[in-house]
């Protein structure tokens, strides 16, 4: 960071960590385990399986060790060597300076896990420095794990897909620029939410969205019946091209925000509130009946708004094709917006990433953390409602 950038105090960093102990406990455990592996490499003079004249001993398995911290118990595997040369000061040093260690690791985490930061932290942990190559390898392993997660095969169908983007700032070639973070969430037939994809793009465009959605299909994305997104033209075009069989739902929250462009700045009547109420109706027939009355009521006062609503509202009513129990969750991108808010809460402390790679690393790590929490939670939707709804539609067609 430059001198002008805002730095977090150790107290602020610790508060950030403690705001989500379980997620950061896993991050802390991973980093401490990597530190032990790197320390062993330095102690014996060689990586696993590496042949070198500098080797002074050989690895000989692990023993289990629990480390109690303020963010939970870390389950660690401490490496051993045949000659008994390896010992670590990590546990003793950790107990003496837990606050400094936890804060330093969080600082490393929120700043993108740069090699320089990792090197400084391992020096603080263990009392001596590691080679730059060893530190780089530890960081590379983290990147590889995240890359593997977001390239894994999507082996099950996802009838619901939610797409959205947010923006982060990162330095690239000495210039600070916005990076579009493209995110996809799927809901499987068990009703579980899953993070399917997270990628960076220089901007939201037809080509970037098309590449993103096509990449999901190449990984096995299938069975998509319903897609929710905002009205970005590039995204809409990508959905039509890559997922032509899916019904598209324009997020009604974004739609209502867009409606503000067609009314005076201060609206002192119920026009917009009545428009919002259409999304709480039980079925489409009720919406169309009430919409006709709304148009007649407000045509004279807000002609631009009424004309715009008539032309565009149909795109926001696709969710009425779904079972009533799913309307609340599938009429907007709020499911993904909440994930974006959580990401924003963490990335806000960084402000400007040193490079796009560090931005993607942090956002992906947070996304994986949220993904795992979702899988451990109770199912988000009861998909039996959708199964029965589809059966009823088939029966109605056959009648």
Automatic annotation (TrEMBL):
Keywords: DNA recombination, DNA-binding, Transposable element, Transposition
The keyword Transmembrane is assigned to this record: no
Top-level lineage group: Bacteria
GO biological process assignments: DNA transposition
GO molecular function terms noted in the UniProt entry: DNA binding; transposase activity
Pfam families in the cross-refs: Transposase_mut
InterPro entries: Transposase_mutator
Biological function: Required for the transposition of the insertion element.
Family assignment from sequence similarity: Belongs to the transposase mutator family.
Entry protein name: Mutator family transposase
Species classification: Bacteria, Pseudomonadati, Pseudomonadota, Alphaproteobacteria, Hyphomicrobiales
